[in-house]
Design a protein that fits this description.
This protein is mainly alpha-helical. Helices cover about 85% and strands about 0% of the residues. It has one domain. α1 packs across α4, α2 runs antiparallel to α3 and α2 packs across α4. It starts with 6 loop residues before the first helix and ends with a helix. It is a multi-pass membrane protein.
Length: about 130
């Protein structure tokens, strides 16, 4: 059962992840046009390695809300961040170990996905 107080935070986190996904797909399309299929595949993998842990964190972090659950809120954020980092490390390790990638597009999109949460709140706020 989802807490009513968590809905705005969870909705914002999912909107942010959706915006990051759309921006990533646009960048992948640009990479495909200018550098070809192999670079676009590498960029896609870089985006996936960054986006999947963000989705997990959005789910985990906004599980609890309210004054009575303040300890659970803090614990869910901390455990969400730790698990997000672990998932990201595993995905990054598996990708680098088992998939042949072009490093520049892969890490460029990965870094973009990691940096976008800093500016997407301003974009989402302007749309409201």
């Amino acid at each position: 059962m989802a807490n009513e107080l968590t809905k705005p935070g969870r909705r914002f986190a999912y909107m942010q992840t959706t915006l990051i996904t759309v921006i990533s797909l646009i960048v992948i399309l640009i990479i495909y046009i200018f550098w070809g299929v192999e670079s676009a595949k590498s960029a896609l993998l870089g985006g996936i390695v960054g986006i999947i842990p963000n989705l997990f964190f959005a789910y985990k972090a906004f599980k609890y809300a309210g004054a009575r659950s303040s300890k659970k809120v803090v614990e869910s954020f901390f455990s969400g961040v730790k698990q997000k980092m672990a998932i990201m490390a595993v995905l990054l390790g598996l990708t680098l170990k088992f998939v042949t990638i072009s490093p520049l597009p892969f890490f460029s999109l990965f870094c973009l996905v990691m940096a976008l949460p800093i500016i997407t709140p301003f974009i989402i706020k302007q749309q409201r």
